[in-house]
Write a structure and sequence with these properties.
The structure holds two protein chains of two kinds. Chain A is mainly alpha-helical. Chain A folds into two domains: about 5-200, no CATH class; about 200-280, no CATH class. In chain A, about 60% of the residues lie in helices and about 5% in strands. Chain A has helices at about 5-20, 40-65, 70-90, 90-95, 115-140, 140-150, 155-160, 165-190, 200-215, 220-235, 250-265; strands at about 280, 295-300. In chain A, strands 1-2 form a two-stranded antiparallel sheet. In chain A, helix 1 runs antiparallel to helix 2 (about 40-65), helix 2 (about 40-65) crosses helix 8 and helix 5 (about 115-140) packs across helix 6. Chain B is mostly helical. Chain B has a single domain (about 1-290), classed as ABC transporter involved in vitamin B12 uptake, BtuC (Orthogonal Bundle). Chain B has a two-stranded antiparallel ribbon with strand order 1-2. In chain B, strand 1 and strand 2 (about 135-140) form a beta hairpin. Classes of the chains: A mainly alpha, B mainly alpha. At the A-B interface, helix 3, helix 9 and helix 11 of A face helix 3, helix 4, helix 9 and helix 11 of B.
Chain lengths: ~300, ~300
C-alpha cells in the first residue's frame, strides 16, 4: 500500500527545518511571515524535522486504519495531499502562505558556492548511507519479516500475534521520519519552500521512482530515484526551450513520467529489479533427524 | 440575513455544476467499479475544448453540448484503451488508481503542450443579472442550473423507465448476475463511461463559464468538492451525488461568506474525512456499490 500523501510528510520536514533555522520573521525587512522563527543549529533542526515528519506520518496513517477498500483509501490520501497544500497556501501568516518561505539558511553558507555544494552532496550521501543502514536494520531483522507478513496477509499476521495497527503506525512513523529528514535536507539546499514545491504531481514522481525501480527492492528504488529525479525532472531543463511554447519541455517531462508509470504497471509491474525475498530452508539437524530441523533464514 | 440568503443562492448555483460533475463521477464508479482520478483532467479538457469552440465563434451553449460529447468520447477511449485491458490483466484497484492518476497528469500536460500553461478566460458570458426570491444571480447561472436540472431529470427517467437504465442499475448492483441474465455488461460499461464523460465535459464548460479564469488544473482542483459530493451521497449513487453536490455547494458558499473564502475547500475536505470515518456508505443508506467499499 503506497502512501499517496507522502509528499505532505516531506513538506512538513521542510517547513520544520525552515522555521527552526531561519530566525524571526521581522528579519530581512519582514517581507515574509511564519510561526516560530528560531535559529537552532543544523542537526537539531534536522532531528526536529524527523520528529515532526514521524508525527505527521502517524496522523496520515490513522486515516488509513479505517477498513475501507484500497482504492478508496488511495483517493483519501490524494485528497489529503492536495488539501494540505491548499490550506498552507491559504494561511499567509502560518507558514508563508502561497509565496512560501525563502532565504532558509544553508549549513555551508560560509564556504564558497562550489565547495559548499560539494560539501552538501557529501553530507547528503552520508545521510543516505545512514538511512540505508537504518532501513536494513528495520526490514532485515524479525521486524522486517513481521512487516512483510503483514503486507502479504494481514489476517494471517494478526493471527500470529502481531499487532497490525501498531506495526502500521510504526511503519508510518519511520517512513515519516525519513520523509522529514529528506524535506529538511532539500530545503536547506534550495533555500526556499512553498506549496507549489509539493503539489500532488510531485507524489507521482516519487511513485514512478518506486514503480520503475521495483517495489520492495531497496536498491531498485534508490536507482529509480536517481533515474527519475536526475534524468527526467532535472534533465529536461537542458533540452532547448522552444521559444513560442513556454513550459513545453516541463510538460513533456511530466508526460513521460506519467507514461512511464503506466507503461511499467502494464508491462513490468514488478519493476526493473524485482523484490528479493528471503529464502528459508531446513537446517540439517546434527542428530540426523530431518523432522526436528530448525528453520534458518538467509537473505538471497 | 441578506448575506445568508445571497450566499445560499450562490451555493445553489455552484452546487448545480458540482452535482453535474459528481453525478458523472459516481455513475461511472457505480457501474465499472473503478475510481477514475483522471476525471479532473477530462474536465479541464472540456473547459479548453469550450474555449477553442468559443474561438471558432460557436454559441457557448452549443459548445457546451459538443464539448460534453467530445469528452464523453475521450472517456470511452480511456476506458477501452487503458482501464479495461488492465482490469483484464488482473490489476488491483490500488494499481488502477495510480494508473488513472498518471493518465490524468499526462492528459493535463497534453493540454499544457497544446494550449500552453497560461490562465484562460471565456470572457464575460454571465448576461443580465436577475433578482429572484432575494437572490441576485446572473442569467448564465440560472441557465446552467436549468441545464443541470434537465439532465438530472433525464438521467432519472433513463435509469427508471428504460430497458437501458434497468440494465445499468442491474450491472451496478451485481455485475456477474447481470451478465448471466444476458446483459452485455461491457457495453453497459462503455455507455456509463460515455455518459460520465459527457457530464464531466459539460460540467467543465459550465464551471469555466461561471468562474473568471482557469488553467489546466481547473478540473483537478474541482475534483475535491466533487468527490466530497459523491462521498456525501454515497459513492455509486447518482441521486446521492445530486443532493450531495447541492449540499457541498451551499455549505461551502455559506461558510465562505462568514469565513475566509480561502478556506472554502477545507469544508469539502472536512466532509470527505468526516463521512469516511463516521459513515463511509454515505448519507443515503447502503447501495451495493457503496457496500463494496467496505472491506
Amino acid at each position: 500500500m503506497a502512501n499517496l500523501a507522502y509528499i505532505v510528510v516531506i513538506a512538513a520536514g521542510a517547513y520544520t527545518y525552515a522555521v527552526l533555522t531561519i530566525g524571526p520573521d521581522t528579519g530581512n525587512g519582514g517581507f515574509q511571515h511564519y510561526i516560530l522563527g528560531y535559529q537552532l543549529p543544523f542537526f537539531a533542526a534536522v532531528i526536529a524535522a524527523a520528529a515532526v515528519g514521524a508525527g505527521v506520518g502517524v496522523l496520515i496513517g490513522v486515516t488509513g486504519l479505517k477498513r475501507i477498500r484500497q482504492d478508496y483509501q488511495a483517493m483519501v490520501m490524494l485528497v489529503i495531499s492536495i488539501m494540505a497544500a491548499t490550506v498552507i497556501g491559504a494561511a499567509p501568516s502560518f507558514l508563508g502562505g502561497e509565496p512560501g518561505i525563502s532565504l532558509v539558511p544553508n549549513p555551508f553558507s560560509n564556504l564558497s558556492a562550489v565547495t559548499g555544494a560539494w560539501a552538501y552532496v557529501a553530507m547528503v550521501a552520508f545521510a543516505c548511507l545512514i538511512g540505508y543502514l537504518v532501513l536494513r536494520k528495520f526490514t532485515g531483522g524479525p521486524m522486517g519479516r513481521a512487516l512483510r507478513a503483514m503486507r502479504d496477509d494481514e489476517h494471517a499476521a494478526a493471527a500470529m500475534g502481531f499487532s497490525v495497527v501498531r506495526m502500521r503506525l510504526l511503519t508510518q512513523a519511520v517512513g515519516g521520519a525519513f520523509g522529514g529528514v529528506s524535506g529538511a535536507l532539500l530545503v536547506a539546499f534550495i533555500g526556499g519552500w512553498s506549496p507549489g514545491a509539493w503539489a500532488y504531481v510531485e507524489t507521482l514522481a516519487l511513485l514512478t521512482a518506486v514503480i520503475v525501480g521495483g517495489m520492495g527492492n531497496d536498491f531498485g528504488v534508490t536507482l529509480g530515484t536517481f533515474v527519475i529525479a536526475v534524468l527526467l525532472l532535472q534533465g529536461v531543463q537542458f533540452l532547448p526551450q522552444i521559444r513560442s511554447h513556454t513550459g513545453l519541455t516541463e510538460a513533456l517531462g511530466w508526460m513521460v513520467l506519467g507514461l512511464l508509470t503506466i507503461g511499467f504497471l502494464w508491462f513490468r509491474p514488478q519493476g526493473v529489479f524485482r523484490e528479493r525475498r528471503p529464502k528459508y530452508r531446513l537446517r540439517p539437524d546434527p542428530t540426523g533427524d530431518p523432522s526436528s530441523g530448525a528453520l534458518a533464514g538467509r537473505r538471497g | 440575513m441578506h448575506l445568508l440568503v445571497q450566499s445560499i443562492g450562490f451555493g445553489v448555483a455552484a452546487g448545480a455544476v458540482l452535482s453535474l460533475g459528481a453525478v458523472g463521477f459516481t455513475l461511472q464508479f457505480g457501474i465499472s467499479n473503478v475510481l477514475n482520478i483522471a476525471y479532473g483532467a477530462l474536465m479541464s479538457i472540456g473547459a479548453f475544448l469550450g474555449l477553442f469552440m468559443l474561438g471558432l465563434g460557436l454559441n457557448i451553449w452549443v459548445a457546451m453540448v459538443l464539448g460534453g460529447l467530445a469528452v464523453g468520447a475521450c472517456s470511452v477511449l480511456l476506458n477501452r484503451g487503458l482501464i479495461t485491458p488492465l482490469v483484464r490483466k488482473g490489476m488491483q484497484p490500488f494499481g488502477l488508481v495510480i494508473v488513472s492518476v498518471s493518465a490524468g497528469i499526462v492528459l493535463e500536460y497534453v493540454i499544457v503542450a497544446v494550449a500552453g500553461p497560461a490562465t484562460q478566460s471565456y470572457g464575460n458570458l454571465s448576461g443580465a443579472t436577475l433578482n429572484f426570491l432575494g437572490w441576485t444571480l446572473t442569467t448564465a447561472q440560472v441557465v446552467i442550473f436549468g441545464i443541470a436540472v434537465l439532465l438530472m431529470v433525464g438521467l432519472h427517467l433513463l435509469l427508471t423507465r428504460t430497458q437501458l437504465g434497468r440494465a445499468m442499475r442491474a450491472t451496478s448492483s451485481n455485475r456477474t448476475l447481470a451478465r448471466s441474465c444476458g446483459i452485455a455488461t461491457s457495453r453497459i460499461s462503455d455507455i456509463a463511461w460515455f455518459m460520465s464523460g459527457t457530464f464531466c465535459g459539460m460540467a467543465g464548460i459550465a464551471l469555466a463559464i461561471t468562474i473568471e479564469s482557469f488553467d489546466f488544473t481547473l478540473g483537478s482542483i474541482f475534483l475535491i468538492p466533487m468527490i466530497a459530493a459523491a462521498v456525501l451521497g454515497g459513492v455509486g449513487q447518482p441521486y446521492g451525488a445530486m443532493i450531495g453536490g447541492l449540499v457541498v455547494g451551499v455549505v461551502s458558499s455559506v461558510s465562505s461568506a462568514y469565513w475566509d473564502p480561502a478556506y472554502q475547500s477545507v469544508v469539502a475536505f472536512g466532509i470527505i474525512i468526516v463521512m469516511l470515518l463516521v459513515r463511509p456508505r454515505g448519507l443515503f443508506g447502503s447501495s451495493s456499490a457503496t457496500r463494496k467499499l467496505l472491506a
